[in-house]
Design goal:
- The radius of gyration is 22 Å and the shape is globular.
- The longest helix is centred in the first third of the chain and has 20 residues, at about 40-60.
- Strands 2-10-9-8-7-5-6 form a seven-stranded mixed β-sheet, with helices on both faces. The chain has a three-stranded antiparallel β-sheet with strand order 4-3-11, with no helix packed on it.
- It has about 400 residues and is an alpha/beta fold.
- Helix content is about 35%, strand content about 15%.
- It is built from 14 helices and 15 strands.
């Protein structure tokens, strides 16, 4: 009998494995009845659980507790934030246009509730950093504007200069949305420093349940118009009976992720070890975004002549899971719009792989990848082993 291959999971940016503490808490809550809107004891217990989780998520991103609205995931959160209709100090505000980065997640690239004709795409440089001169020029135009930018890119891990972006948006009297889905639990989140009006989160990126997200505002006096209307749940911001078990799992994951975000040195050391090992094997490797600040857990790289799709299949046969670009497009392997926006040519972009580490990653996972990588390269493009960049 052959020994079972060790399973290695290197795809946390697509979705982290659920933490055991999250699972245990959710199972406990599922065993109880109770609608969080009911006034009897069961309902009050459910409400208490929801509010405790709300506080934990607020603490994760340095927000006030009442600023957190629970939704069904990151996509719904972004759809909620990306609306022309806002309330500001109790008065309705209508925004004329949306400015969004060229490397945004598809849920932002769709433009949310803004008509296509009112959307403008902001270019990024070769490292994926938003072109601030272009942003400043567009903000100088006399239009009521929402700017949407991700804190950290899901494919490359590149972190945007959010304080600078926020200062430009505030000076122009605009509104700012930050997609913090990949940032949560991996870097500090500071709504005040970023001057963000709203940020969005997704629980399953840091070990919480899939299908849970949050919209978090800096001030409850300035909020986006509701996407889901009907009942008065979530302080009238999102109608529908609360998913108490999912919310509680979100809360537990948020508590654990907040501690991890305080010290990312260990995960950064793993990523650096991975990249150093790949360079020893393939000196010609390109690491995308390495000229800019990046999340400690993310490495996106390409070795020309080693197609990502073929490499992914070979790794999967060895029970190693990672991605090529975003995993949010029906499992398709296609040219990354993020790398295209960064000016990467199509041939190299088709060779891009993404390793993303997380709460359960260790040195053995990196070692296993580096053990397998030489044979994959030798099979597909042996010249890459000796060719310098």
């Amino acid at each position: 009998m052959t020994s079972r291959r060790p399973h290695v999971y290197l795809d946390h940016n697509a979705g982290a494995p659920m933490r055991s503490e999250v699972r245990d808490r959710m199972v406990e809550v599922m065993m109880d009845a109770g609608n969080a809107s009911s006034v009897h004891g069961d309902g009050r217990r459910a409400r208490g659980r929801v509010e405790a989780a709300r506080e934990a998520v607020a603490n994760l991103c340095g927000a006030r507790t009442r600023a957190v609205t629970f939704v069904s995931g990151g996509t719904e959160a972004n759809m909620t934030a990306l609306t022309p209709q806002w309330q500001d100090q109790g008065a309705p505000v209508y925004l004329d246009r949306l400015l969004r980065g060229a490397s945004e997640h598809p849920s932002v690239a769709s433009g949310g509730r803004f008509p296509p004709a009112t959307q403008t795409v902001l270019p990024v440089d070769e490292n994926g950093i938003l072109r601030l001169d272009e942003l400043e020029g567009l903000l100088a135009e006399d239009q009521a504007t929402l700017v949407s930018v991700m804190a950290a890119n899901n494919e490359t891990g590149v972190i945007q200069p959010l304080a600078e972006i926020g200062a430009l948006v505030k000076a122009a009297g605009g509104f700012l949305h930050v997609d913090a889905v990949q940032a949560a639990g991996r870097m500090p989140i500071d709504l005040d420093a970023w001057q963000a009006d709203v940020i969005t989160l997704s629980a399953h990126k840091f070990g919480g349940p899939q299908g849970m997200g949050a919209v978090v505002v800096r001030s409850t006096a300035r909020v986006p118009g509701s996407l889901m209307t009907g009942g008065g749940q979530e302080n009238w911001r999102r109608a529908g009976t609360e998913n108490v078990a999912g919310i509680c799992g979100f809360g537990v994951a948020a508590e654990l992720a907040a501690k991890e975000a305080e010290d990312t040195a260990q995960i950064a050391a793993l990523r650096d070890s991975l990249e150093a090992g790949i360079r020893l094997i393939c000196p010609s490797v390109t690491v995308f975004g390495e000229g800019a600040p990046r999340l400690a857990n993310t490495s996106c790289f390409a070795v020309e002549g080693v197609p990502a799709e073929t490499a992914l299949i070979a790794l999967d046969l060895e029970s190693v899971s990672l991605s090529s670009g975003s995993a949010c497009s029906s499992g398709k392997v296609s040219v990354s719009h993020v790398l295209t926006a960064m000016g990467v040519d199509e041939e190299k972009a088709r060779c891009a792989l993404r390793v993303s580490l997380g709460w359960n990653s260790g040195a053995k996972d990196v070692d296993r990848f580096l053990e397998l990588w030489p044979s994959i390269v030798d099979r597909l493009n042996p010249e890459a082993r000796n060719r310098a960049a």
